[in-house]
Amino acid sequence: MHVTRRGLMLGTAALSLPALHARAQGRAIRMTIAHNSAPSSPKGMGATKFAELVSANTRGRVEVHVAPSEQLGNENTNMAAIRTGTLEFGSLGQGALLSVAPEVAAIGLPFLFSSMPAAWQALDGPVGRNLAQRLESRGMVFLGWWCNGIRQLTNNRRPVNRPEDLRGLKIRTPLDPATVDMFAAMGAVPQQINWGEVYLALQTGVVDGQENPLANIHAAKLHEVQRYVSLTSHKYEPTGLIMSTMAWRRLNDDERGAVRAAAAEAGTYQRNVMRESEERLLGEFRRMPNIQVNEVELEPFRRATESVWDAWEQKPFGDFVKLLRAARA
């Protein structure tokens, strides 16, 4: 039978040679999802659920290995690997996402969302779809918005009841300009440290404190080396589940549908785990003798960070910032 070059190209367009070889040998296509959190964290549990669902939905034709706790490098390393095709999936935080789509950082502007459900509603609507399209235009497949929670503040120096209490405190923040600007506006000294190194940095006094959802604080055992938990609820942070375009091309249409279905189900599961964890852990932290939890009046913190919104409206994506500012929940 004569096969033209064009016919061969069309016949293999949907599948890469490694995928075709795996099918010919009756073997599963093996992929990996990486993330920076502990397996017991909501992000870790979501990644495990996603891997299980992909296997179930494809009847074992696609297997996903989970690499937690920065086993494959930090989030920016994972993002680079996904874009070059050496890593298939990543559950990546805002800092890594904004490295390819700076507009994502605006979701982390101060006091944008009052609750996780309010954030989910926005990200499941036009705002989230707009950002997803921007990410996909940079060469990846976007599979859904997971939840990294409403963030709170911990430190070893003093309770933070007012913005002035932050003056001079060295606070670890992620590589996220909105968070850096927010804490600098309140007089803190933001410090960027990889997530896997935060425990030691707090333990040794390299930094005084950090900010994260309660679930992440607990999963990383940061409460072991922090004295004060201040419920500032200063920002919401999303997690994006993304996939390498090259990995996507290795799958046939049925497998792609199975991956999308797994992502949707795992995303709902992960959000629920985050919400339940936050509610449960607040009570646990209050009962810990080595931890002092304090509520704060949010309005002074909002006023102290309005200058951040003003400055961000001057950025190239200022129209998007204005849209968010008008819709603050």
Low-confidence stretches: 1-14
Radius of gyration: 21 Å
- In CATH terms, the superfamily is Bacterial extracellular solute-binding protein, family 7
Q: Tell me the CATH topology.
A: D-Maltodextrin-Binding Protein, domain 2
Number of helices: 15
Describe the protein.
By secondary structure, the chain is α/β, with parallel strands linked by helices. The protein has one domain (14-326): D-Maltodextrin-Binding Protein, domain 2. Helix content is 45%, strand content 20%. It is built from 15 helices and nine strands. It has helices at residues 5-11, 17-24, 42-57, 75-84, 94-97, 116-123, 126-136, 177-185, 198-203, 214-219, 245-249, 253-287, 298-304, 306-312, 318-326; strands at residues 29-34, 62-67, 89-93, 140-155, 170-173, 189-192, 209-212, 228-244, 292-295. Strands 1, 2, 3, 4, 5, 6, 7, 8 and 9 form a nine-stranded mixed beta sheet that branches.
